[in-house]
Write a structure and sequence with these properties.
By secondary structure, the protein is an alpha/beta fold. Helix content is 40%, strand content 13%. The protein has eleven helices and eight strands. Strands 1, 2, 3, 4, 5, 6, 7 and 8 form an eight-stranded mixed sheet that branches. Helix 1 runs antiparallel to helix 4. The longest helix has 17 residues. The radius of gyration is 18 Å and the shape is globular.
Length: 302
């Protein structure tokens, strides 16, 4: 039976969110709270699935941060570019779908249908190119020994799908499914079923940490306060009860001690207006690292 002391929840947020998560964890570790060692469970949604694999790879947080801060030959460090026009159209459709949905289940079904309908727009080789890209950046090829859950959604029904080392699903397939944003790329097929990102159900899926004494939620995309930078996608509108605040309230009522970390002003500025842009990776990681050192002063475990 898994030890149920600390669950680490990693939310979605594109390239910027992934880097910010690594920075936060490295900053916490620098200040004495190494969650790569102490977390009994890691739950990863969308970009959080990629970050979770890094944190479960056995590589020390400081080295993970150093790798994240290393410029890519294809994408040197620099100012984030504007959101591509095709993503503006995708986000507009997502806004329309979420505005019309009257329940979480309806939102998930509609987003799954949008993903399936969008598949025809993508060239046949897109799926293989995406598979190769994700395989190249995955730090581990097999499921980690320590508990990890990757979150996706069935495109045909909108139902929650969770993958772990006992699910009989290849780690690479689980990661591709978890990051398949409807409309931005094709849905992903596993054993005859097509999947989309678990971020459609929740930006964080913190409720899946039920039963753990301590739950630490690192959320690049939830519980924002104040105005967003111009052009920044605000995320899906969540029906009542399907947002992070509601998930945290349920966990606390059940007895979990929950700590939530979201980007502070410096981190939000670093993440810019296009969180999908790889150019946001380095500034987001740096800002996350500095924020993580500060957050360590307030995070308490029971």
């Amino acid at each position: 039976m898994d030890h149920k002391n600390i669950a680490l929840v990693l939310g979605g947020g594109g390239s910027a969110g992934n880097a910010w998560l690594i920075g936060i964890v490295a900053g916490l570790a620098e200040a004495g709270l190494d969650l790569t060692e102490r977390a009994d469970l890691v739950i990863g949604t969308s970009a959080g699935a990629n970050a979770g694999l890094q944190l479960r790879s056995g590589v020390p947080p400081a080295e993970l941060l150093a790798r994240t801060l290393t410029p890519s030959p294809a994408q040197p460090a620099g100012q984030a570019r504007p959101q591509p026009p095709q993503m503006d159209a995708v986000f507009e459709q997502m806004r329309s779908i979420s505005a019309a949905a009257t329940s979480a289940a309806e939102l998930q079904r509609a987003m799954g249908q949008y993903g399936l309908e969008s598949d025809a727009r993508f060239a046949p080789d897109i799926a293989e190119k995406r598979r190769a890209m994700i395989a190249a950046r995955n730090p581990v090829k097999d499921w980690p020994e320590r508990a990890m859950v990757i979150v996706a959604v069935r495109a045909d029904t909108g139902e929650l799908a969770t993958f772990d080392r006992d699910a009989g699903v290849d780690l690479l397939d689980a990661t591709i499914a978890a990051t398949a944003l409807p409309g931005a790329g094709p849905t992903h097929e596993i054993n005859g079923v097509r999947y989309i990102s678990g971020g459609v159900r929740s930006a964080d899926n913190a409720d899946l940490a039920a039963g753990y004494t301590n739950v630490i939620v690192l959320s690049p995309f939830s519980l924002r306060t104040g105005p967003l930078p111009p052009g920044q996608f605000e995320g899906l509108r969540r029906p009542p009860g399907a947002d992070l605040a509601s998930e945290v309230a349920v966990l606390r009522r059940a007895g979990s001690h929950v700590e939530v970390v979201t980007p502070d002003d410096e981190s939000r500025t670093a993440m810019g207006t296009n969180q999908m842009d790889p150019a946001t990776r380095i500034p987001s990681a740096r800002a996350g690292y500095e924020q993580g050192k500060r957050e360590a002063l307030r995070i308490k475990l029971v």
